[in-house]
Amino acid sequence: WHKPEVLVRFRHLGVEPVDGHSLFEMLDISEDDELDIEEFVAVCLRAKTLTRPVDLQSFIQQSRRTHQVVQRHMESLERRVESVILKLDSAVGVTNLRDRA
Q1: What is the pLDDT of residue 89?
Q2: Quick one: residue 19, left, alpha or beta (phi over 0 = left, psi -120 to 50 = alpha)?
Q3: pLDDT (average), residues 30-55
Q4: Which domain, by its residues, includes 68?
Q5: Would you say 47 and 56 are in contact if contact means Cβ atoms under 8 Å apart?
Q6: How many domains does the chain have?
Q7: InterPro entries from the xrefs (predicted)?
């Protein structure tokens, strides 16, 4: 809301400055105080099909839960990949020692 042109555009869309924080919180699905383009596009595309505020609120809650599940799976996958890398490094190290003997 610091730039007048942004304020004018939001007012044109019917969003008042008081609603700006609420709008950001609704769009910030990952709840990391950042709004990346993927989140923005996903919400905008889905919002076109929603007819009631309850629909939008339900969608946002579902999106947050889905994001949390995906995040947990990604963290698990990263741990597994790191484990595989350590095992491969260990196996390569053993192989190198055998080659030297």
Answers
A1: 87
A2: alpha
A3: 67
A4: 4-100
A5: yes
A6: 1
A7: EF-hand-dom_pair, EF_Hand_1_Ca_BS
Angle between helix axes 4-12 and 17-27 (nearest 10 degrees) is 80
Rounded CA Rg of the chain:
23
DSSP string, 55-82: HHHHHHHHHHHHHHHHHHHHHHHHHHHH
Summarised one tens digit per residue, pLDDT across range 72-101 is: 999 999 999 999 999 988 888 766 656 665
Segment 58-81 shows an average pLDDT of 87
What tokens appear for 64 in the block? 């947050």
What is the mean predicted confidence (pLDDT) over 63-77? Answer: 88
Six-digit token string for 73: 């799976």
